[in-house]
Amino acid sequence: MVQSTFAHLLAPLDLGFTQLKNRVVMGSMHTGLEEAKDGFAKMAEFYATRARGNVALIVTGGIAPNRAGWVAPFAARLSSKSQVNDHQLITSAVHESGGKIAMQILHAGRYGYHPLAVGPSRIRAPINKFTPWALSGKGVQKTIDDYVNCAVLAKEAGYDGVEIMGSEGYLINEFLVTHTNHRKDEWGGSFTNRMRFAEEIVKKTREAVGEKFIIIYRLSMLDLIPDGNLPEETAALAQAIEAAGATIINTGIGWHEVRIPTIAAKVPRAAFTWVTHQLRQAVNLPLMTSNRINNPYDAETVLARNDADLISMARPFLADPNFVRKTQENEIDAINTCIACNQACLDYVFQKKRATCMVNPFAAYETELVATPTKKTKKIAVVGAGPAGMACSLQAAKRGHQVTLFDQQSEIGGQFNLAKRIPGKQEFFETLRYFSHQLPKAGVNLQLNTAVDASMLLDGAFDHVVLATGITPRMLQIPGSSHPKAVTYIDVLQGKVVVGDKVAIIGAGGIGFDVAEFLSHADANHPSIEIKDFLAYWGIDPNNAVRGGVANIQPIDIPSKREIYLLQRKNEKLGARLGKTTGWIHRTELKRKKVRMFAGVEYQKIDDEGLHIVVDGKTQVLAVDHVVICAGQLPLKTLYEPLQGKVPVSLVGGAELALELDATRAIRQGTELALAL
């Protein structure tokens, strides 16, 4: 698609007392820097980098207004003047970079993972082991005061505004629905009472900060819980929030405890903007929409059809801080697109690691990963154009080295060319598009269809050799492993094998789940390709006319036409090691497709009858047409020994350590090596 202008996306927005220079907002993301040593200095550069990329407004990660509102013990909060100076590091850096920034005030409510958590009622969240304390009447008033105090301190710290988090199942959202609010006082019962908490917070905040201060309210427009709000209640709340003094209303979709994907790659792009559009007739405030908008074309389309006034994108600004600038310069192919994998952002945060980005390891490491021009140009050979090789080649060439990138295949990508074939992982095409654009632009000499031997790399041809040759599948050491029924996952995903109607998959790691997804969808359209199909598949009312958008709506299953067995040796839940934020989606889909899963499996042999196994001490034969081996990988580094001692040589990615197609590690390692050469 060719588009020379983005008239709606790049148009300014007048808020009366201030103006946003375009319609793109960097949405709130927790990075882990909020609680890290020297974290505020690092966050200052993180946000300043995005401000220099011309985003109109930045919203920080959630900051608690009091201790009870912590997401976890000692999480970031702003409740006293002693904490203001830290925040001024951020606001000063952003303003010096020409940007605006709002601080999100987030009270975790019953999602707080600590014993001090509170809620409107004493009802434990299914994703938390701590039961919240029910706020007393005085506690409710004190909490409102704490929100206001937090906003006043944010203004003192130099923020241009605040976003009051009222969605995703956090405290304010908990007051709004009978799912979590069983109170009998003036804060419970009727919807008028239940929404008073949100209304009072916004009203009193506006009174305290004055008129010339942005107040964004993030409103849950689609709860996705059966006893969530009706659309008329959502409209009434929006009108009350407008009357209370909000500047902008942002869109929240789904509670965190809901088992419906809202931001993963399986969600179609811009899948929920229609929900924002429904609120257009209710209020006059600018509306912001969000969730799975990752490119300027879709963002422009959403605005052009009047779904919203502003686009909120969070993870796309991890992937590329210059998203807006590149759009303004019509360099769309130069945008490093967010692929919604969640692997290095949300999954890392749940592991208490610093968030970053699979496709952009510089994200949240701006003060530590610094690319500087080389002082001495080297001739560098990179063998293997997979994730590690592409990243290393690009960054080395950008620094001024002469880089030749070899690959024996006819296209770049390596294992990404397998990943892109998996239903729900089509976004990998975007990463390949990015590198296809960037490598030649940086001056990389790309040599495809080229099998490299050691002689090509010696005799002074290169000053340094990087082996990014990837992996080879580990074969199963059981009788019959060479039987025609036994095939590798690579052969299956590359279409070299026509897999039969009955198949066993050995190995239930990420690759095994991907192969099961691939085989279960091979003869049917993937349900998340079209928004209407996605909504039907997950049981979401496309008219949002029922409570929470899901009440009494049954999901539509699409069973697999194949009979599939997914097996693993470990005696633990299959998929236990998959990503925290996406693993449940993979497990749910395979169960709904009737994929049969077995743990604690002993493999005996493969023969004409099929796969012989022992489960729970009982021998059985799976009469399958094929057995797909997903039993791990081994590093492919046959060139390493012939080069050692003759030329400086480095191993990166799978060639150095073969792990479950760990592209995050591969890209980061390739990047770090390039910066050190």
TrEMBL record:
<keyword id="KW-0479">Metal-binding</keyword>
<dbReference type="GO" id="GO:0010181">
    <property type="term" value="F:FMN binding"/>
</dbReference>
<feature type="domain" description="NADH:flavin oxidoreductase/NADH oxidase N-terminal">
    <location>
        <begin position="9"/>
        <end position="330"/>
    </location>
</feature>
<dbReference type="Pfam" id="PF07992">
    <property type="entry name" value="Pyr_redox_2"/>
</dbReference>
<dbReference type="InterPro" id="IPR023753">
    <property type="entry name" value="FAD/NAD-binding_dom"/>
</dbReference>
<keyword id="KW-0288">FMN</keyword>
<dbReference type="InterPro" id="IPR013785">
    <property type="entry name" value="Aldolase_TIM"/>
</dbReference>
<feature type="domain" description="FAD/NAD(P)-binding">
    <location>
        <begin position="379"/>
        <end position="641"/>
    </location>
</feature>
<dbReference type="GO" id="GO:0008670">
    <property type="term" value="F:2,4-dienoyl-CoA reductase (NADPH) activity"/>
</dbReference>
<dbReference type="InterPro" id="IPR001155">
    <property type="entry name" value="OxRdtase_FMN_N"/>
</dbReference>
<dbReference type="Pfam" id="PF00724">
    <property type="entry name" value="Oxidored_FMN"/>
</dbReference>
<keyword id="KW-0408">Iron</keyword>
<dbReference type="GO" id="GO:0046872">
    <property type="term" value="F:metal ion binding"/>
</dbReference>
<keyword id="KW-0285">Flavoprotein</keyword>
<keyword id="KW-0560">Oxidoreductase</keyword>
<dbReference type="InterPro" id="IPR036188">
    <property type="entry name" value="FAD/NAD-bd_sf"/>
</dbReference>
<keyword id="KW-0411">Iron-sulfur</keyword>
<dbReference type="InterPro" id="IPR051793">
    <property type="entry name" value="NADH:flavin_oxidoreductase"/>
</dbReference>
<dbReference type="GO" id="GO:0051536">
    <property type="term" value="F:iron-sulfur cluster binding"/>
</dbReference>
<comment type="similarity">
    <text>In the N-terminal section; belongs to the NADH:flavin oxidoreductase/NADH oxidase family.</text>
</comment>
<protein>
    <submittedName>
        <fullName>2,4-dienoyl-CoA reductase [NADPH]</fullName>
        <ecNumber>1.3.1.34</ecNumber>
    </submittedName>
</protein>
